[in-house]
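INFO batch 0412 | record 1 of 1 | parsing
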Amino acid sequence: LDIFWGDGTGSTLARFSYQDNYGGAGSDIRKNIYIGYHIYPGPSTYTIYFEDPNRNAGVINIPNSVDVPFYVESQLIISAFLGFNNSPILLQAPIDEGTVGQIFIHNANAYDPDGDSLAYELIYCKGSDGLPIPGYSYPTASNSFTLDPITGDLVWDSPVGCGEFNVAFLIREYRNGVQIGFVERDMQITILCNNPNNNEPPVFNSIADVCVTAGDTLNMNITAIDPNPNDVVILTA
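INFO prediction complete | emitting C-alpha cells
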C-alpha cells in the first residue's frame, strides 16, 4: 500500500495482517492492516492520504465505478500549543446492508481517546487526486438522506433502489472549540432488492440521559424488542 504523509514524502507499506470474511460469515470482503511510521520535519498541518486505482464495479451512484480511484485522507496538526493528540477511532466497520423501502441507519461508532469533541459532515466520495468524483450523487431516497452532525447517525429514509452504494463523511475533531484535525470515511452500503422473511430491525426501549462522575459506577438496564415474534435480540456494548 502506498501512503503519502502530507509533507511531500510517501512510503510503500507491506501488509501487516488481514482478516477474511470481514463483516460476518460468508462475506467476500477482506480487511487488510498496514502499519507505518514517519517522522515529520516540524510543526505544521499535514494531510495524509491514500489512493487506490479502482473501486468495485457496478456502484450505483458512481458512474463507471470500476475505473474510478478510491481516495481517503486524514488531517494531522502538529503544534506545541495543542499537545499530544490521538485521531478519532471508528469502531464500526465501513460496510453495511439495508433493504429497499425500509429506513436505514448507520453509525460509525466513533470515539476520541483524548476526550475531544467530534462533529460529522456528509461529503462527496473522492477520486483521482482527492477531487470529488464527476457524476457522483448521494443515494436516492424516498424522503431524505442525512447525517446528524452531533450523533453521527447516517439516516437513509428510505432506499428506492437496490445494489451497492458508496457514501463518505468527515469526522472533525475539536479541542476547546478549535479544530485540531479530521478523519475521512468512505464506506459501502449494499441495499437488498427484497426483505427476506419481511424482517424488521429491533427497537430500543427509551433510554434516559444520565450524568455520572468520573470514577463512579453506572448501573442501568438497556432493553430492546424485535417486532418479529420469533427473533432473538442480543445486546452488546
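INFO post-check: The mean pLDDT is 94.
INFO record closed
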